TrEMBL record:
PROSITE patterns: TPR. TPR repeats lie at residues 118-151. This is Uncharacterized protein. SMART domains: TPR (SM00028). It comes from Rubrobacter marinus. It comes from the Bacteria.
Length: 201
């Protein structure tokens, strides 16, 4: 195997990792059969795949072709990233990050009512919980669980609300379910820590 094969191998690895990321973060959309939504969220990775596939066409070329190729794909990647996430979702997550929980809840409610996906109801539950509307937050999180019993984030969010309202045994039960379900890796440590803390008390 010569050095010429290295870019091909790296390209294949990049494409494989990119598509694993798409499905890893969007298993709930697969379970819901939300193929249009999944396709939309796959746009940046489709652009990366196209870029990787076209790389051999510009390798070794001199002049302006590689520059135009790089600029063109840079623009395509930026546009695909922008289009891949609905504007309402971007506004809602920005409001949540800024601590505007009532605004975030209002935006997530519109998303959940327009497209009843477990993720929208779970995020609505998180925003309501952060805003101090615990009972509404529990209802929204429970709705997410009903829509997708494998969506671990819904159990995790509900467990935090239950813990904060003193319902320890139910919180423990939900944390265990979250860890058995499809829970993003970054939440697993937090769920394990919360579970240990509750089991000690």
């Amino acid at each position: 195997m010569g050095t010429a094969a290295i870019p091909v191998i790296l390209t294949v690895l990049l494409v494989v990792v990119a598509w694993r990321v798409v499905f890893g973060f969007n298993k709930d959309l697969v379970r819901a059969g939300a193929w249009g939504e999944l396709a939309r969220r796959s746009l940046p990775f489709a652009a990366i795949t196209l870029m990787a596939a076209s790389l051999p066409l510009v390798q070794g070329r001199s002049g302006s072709i590689p520059i135009f190729w790089a600029i063109g794909f840079g623009v395509i990647l930026l546009l695909s990233r922008f289009v891949s996430e609905p504007a309402g979702e971007r506004r809602a997550s920005r409001a949540f990050r800024q601590g505007n929980y009532d605004e975030a809840a209002s935006l997530y409610r519109k998303l959940a009512e327009g497209r009843p996906l477990a993720r929208h109801w779970a995020f609505l539950g998180a925003a309501l919980g952060a805003g101090g509307h615990e009972e509404e937050a529990l209802e929204a999180s429970s709705r997410a669980v009903e829509l997708d019993p494998q969506y671990g984030l819904a159990y995790y969010n509900r467990a935090l609300i239950l813990r904060n309202t003193g319902r320890r045994s139910r919180a423990i039960k939900d944390l265990k379910k979250a860890l058995e379900a499809d829970l993003p890796r970054r939440f697993k440590n937090a769920a394990n820590n919360a579970l240990r803390e509750l089991q000690k008390g």
